[in-house]
Write the structure tokens for this entry.
Amino acid sequence: MKLIFLGPPGAGKGTQAERIAARYGLAHISTGDMLRAELRAGTPLGQQAQGYMNRGELVPDDIVVELVRVRLGEEDCQNGYILDGFPRTLTQAQIMDETSIDVDVVLNIEVADEKLVERLSGRRECKSCGAAYHVLYHPTHDGKTCDECGGELVTRSDDVPEVIRKRLVVYHRQTEPLKEYYRKQGKLTTVQGQEELAETTRIVLSAVAEAEAKL
Ligand code: ADP
Ligand code: ZN
């Protein structure tokens, strides 16, 4: 199965994609995670992307498309994948279609903007391994260090109020039109991501199972 998880920043795409990927044995491909890994490693690509990410803007399409194209060629993607945070512009979606990157289902997770701001401003990540937490909804055992590796918890540089607002504007302007694009292709399934994590997982799982049954 080949899925796209679509939704605003803070909708919970990453967490849900990880859970569904594990359940179905799919590769979980997060362009945000991949870009942050490039950044941490200090690669030229990471350096190019950094400014855009810190400002809450999108990284240029050609950079992201190339990253995904290479990643999809890897062995673990042959059994299917979840694209999390890609495509994020109409151009990215059109390039996918033109280059025959297949998609069966686009799962659109809806959450109101006020809720997103609250979620994003409480989000923390591990400086060493990148694991994601939230001060209220998913705290670590001691509130200070990573449960996975003991690393230091930090706030992502784009999870500060000014940049959060910018990311929401960018989402509504550049990414939200993809809903209509995929609705016309008959691939769009929309779920509400308002609830707590476990409840959202239940909703997402049943939507994916239903979509799979129709393939
Ligand atoms: P979120 O969905 O919470 O905004 P991500 O981790 O998915 O966070 O993405 C973080 C940043 O990485 C984005 O704000 C953007 O700058 C960049 N990025 C990720 N995916 C893409 C993409 N498909 N196209 C352009 N930029 C991207
Ligand atoms: Zn860690």
